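For the sake of transparency, this paper describes our internal protein records without simplification. The remainder of this section carries one protein's record, kept here as part of the documentation:
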Amino acid sequence: MIHITRTLSIPDSEIQEQFIRASGPGGQNVNKVSSAVQLRFDVARSPSLPEAVRARLIVLAGRRLNQEGILTIEAQRFRTQGRNRDDARVRLVELIRRATEVPELRRATKPTRASQRRRLESKQKHGDTKKQRRSVGPSDG
């Protein structure tokens, strides 16, 4: 069981892990040991996720989510399989935790009359400064 928040957990049966060969440095073991982890989680069909969290997770996942709604996380930061496995799970938990946070709704407001006046005065002052920089007569190119 992977615990996301106090009220949200995902059973291990919903997560698939596949061990693949990592790219990059690794010495003699790089071509022999499958230390990288490819973690898959079916966001679209997971019974553990509330609908609101699922919708936000789909947006947050971006291109890590394929057409079928499966989230893929690849971890190959470390040289050992165990540490890469833990890293992939931590990244999955962090992504789902971010999806559980409900964004604050923006309330549309109008600028105050005083702020509008200050803005226009600032623009006028800036324009006057630029006018003073101009040459007075015809230039002798």
Summary: The chain has three helices and five strands.
